[in-house]
Amino acid sequence: MGALGAVATGAMLAALFPNVGASGLAWVALVPLILAARASTPRGAACQRFAAGVLFFLILIEWIRLFDTTAWIAASLVLAAYVALFALLVRLLAPAPTGWRALLVPASAWTALEWARGLGTFGFTWGGLAYSQHGNLPLLQLASVTGPYGITFLIAAVNAGLASMIGVAWSGKPLAGREGVSPRSGDLRGTLARLGVVVAAVGLCAAWGYYRLHRDAGAAPKVRVAVLQGALGWEGDRLPRVTDAMRESSEVYLRLTEEAARQGAQIVIWPESSVPGQVELDPGLRPLREALVATSTRLRVSLLVGSSHRDEAGRLLNSTFLYTPDSGLAGRYDKVHLVPYGEFTPWRQPLDFLYRHFPVIDHEFHPGKGHFPLRAGEAPVGVAICFESAFPGIARALRRAGARLLVVMTNDAWFGERSATWQHYHMAAFRAVESGAAVARASTSGITALIDPYGRAITETRLFERTLRVGDLPLAQRPTPYQLAGDVIAWLSALAILLLLGIQWGRSRRSMAGLQGPATPKAEA
Fold it and tell me: How far apart are CA 82 and CA 91, in angstroms?
């Protein structure tokens, strides 16, 4: 079961996501992992499941090889540690397949660990179980209440329930190396009843989501938005852009802007880095700066343009510039959550002795000062630049700051037709549902799309076509429960696991004290 379970779980988890996209496997992918963890020693559970995690992430994030093979392998090993820790927690806290603990511990552990690996500077949310269900629109609506982690919890709970059912069915056979667990591990009817409760909860959530998708949400003010996709062909390389390339980019996007205005667009969105160089500072880009202001004024459209910038301290920033008909340059947002080793090198100076032996980027972006909306006419627009759209907390922060429309500006040309292009795109639907706000996504080479507040793509492009999409998007009205409460499910899951670990540690201490017995008094002389 050990090696076979590791391979089965790793392969099924990888198959949940593009380019396979077998989303139905999410409901059974963890079953071999849980069964094998319970049949192993704690050390064996962690080691074998670490192999499952390595297989999963090596396949899932294969696209990191485009930047550096060493980083691909190192990231896979680090992320696999979360899978190993999950198996260890199951083995320690729920070794028997009976009772509610057998169901709730795996669900809480997987949810808490998935949430934890998305935190901080090195946070990485790719491969979350919830994202495999991007096409399951009724269930996706649960994200408006719990964020992605409520969906993850339900999926993991179904897996745990199935594993318990199989474990109880096998309870007539002793499980190797198991102390304190009866060979006959409980009542099958009770196990089936608990599984039935979880399945019913999934059904109720999906039924509510179906109702939410088809109810009359009432009238909301709308804004006509255009997203542009230049597909210039060179966006994914790292070579400095020459004058001809800059001129080509300007001509293409200005021409697409004219077409968007003819179709009635009020806001026109260019992708991330659609203007190479520093649009507001480079002397050679002065004609483009003037053209942007003039185009916005003449066409009466607000323009969101991706470029770089240097602040007063000389720090390089990945930025979005807003040009409006009445104000010219009306605002700038600087990317806050940067890509480690893609946009900056962590601890570059202290680790120089190590980095000199590996290829690292020769530039260094710096984070912006915070998340805030830009006002494009009557629409406060919250911008997430590329990697930022992978984090639910960023969209939530933008909505709490007053954004009523979310914009994702990205350059995914690096990935080509690799699975990362679709993985990244599918996250945008979650940001829409979580925040209750429509999402306008502009990508250099695709996928460019307009997404309604329920996660439905109103329109989307194909990869590598030079085109635009125009549509009417509603402005968000009321906050969603998730916007108000945040990651409560993840917090409660983490708290439950920590509490159980504390109880387990206390019992171990008392057990050890009992084995040692009372101290023997010294004989008197």
Answer: 14
C-alpha 268/C-alpha 260 separation (Å) is 7
- 227 to each of 259, 305, 462, 473, 492, how far by Cα in Å? 11, 11, 13, 12, 39
- Which of the residues are catalytic? 272, 335, 386
For residue 411, say if its preceding peptide bond is cis, omega within 30 degrees of 0: no
Question: Which residue numbers in the chain have pLDDT < 70?
Answer: 1-3, 171-186, 236-242, 354-361, 514-525
CA dist 129 and 134 (Å) reads: 10
Q: What is residue 125's three-state secondary structure?
A: coil
Measure Cα distances from 112 to 86, 239, 296, 497 in Å: 9, 41, 47, 8
Q: What confidence score (pLDDT) does residue 180 get?
A: 47
Q: What is the DSSP letter of 397?
A: H
How far is the CA of 242 from the CAs of 235, 250, 276, 284, in angstroms?
13, 13, 9, 11
Alpha helices in 62-147 (DSSP H): 69-93, 101-116, 137-140, 143-146
Contact 496, 110 (CB under 8 A): no
Question: What's the per-residue H, E or C state across 416-472?
Answer: CCCHHHHHHHHHHHHHHHHHCCCEEEEECCCCCEEECCCCCEEEECCCCCCEEEEEE
Q: What is the pLDDT of residue 182?
A: 47
Side-chain-side CA neighbours of residue 485 (13 Å):
17
| Strands 439-443 vs 449-451: parallel, antiparallel or unpaired | antiparallel
- What pLDDT, in 10s, does the model give residues 334-373? 999 998 878 887 777 777 776 666 666 677 899 999 999 9
Q: Output the pLDDT for position 329.
A: 97
Residue type, 354: L
Phi, psi angles (nearest 5°) of residue 122:
-100, 15
Please state whether the peptide bond connecting residue 34 to the residue before it is cis, i.e. omega within 30 degrees of 0. no
Distance CA 483, CA 392 (A): 10
Token pair listed for 104:
């709730």
Looking at residue 219, its pLDDT comes to: 82
| Token pair 């390389």 in the structure block, residue | 237
Give the orientation angle of helix 488-516 with respect to helix 148-169, to 10 degrees: 40
Cα Rg, the chain, nearest whole Å: 26
Q: What angle do CA 493, 499, 505 make, to 5 degrees?
A: 135
Strands 374-376 and 316-324: unpaired
Query: What sign for the dihedral angle of Cα 245, 248, 250, 256?
Result: negative
Task: Give the per-residue pLDDT at 239.
Answer: 58
| Residues 365, 223: Cα–Cα separation, whole Å | 33
In 3D, which of 244, 25, 3 has the Cα closest to residue 129? 25
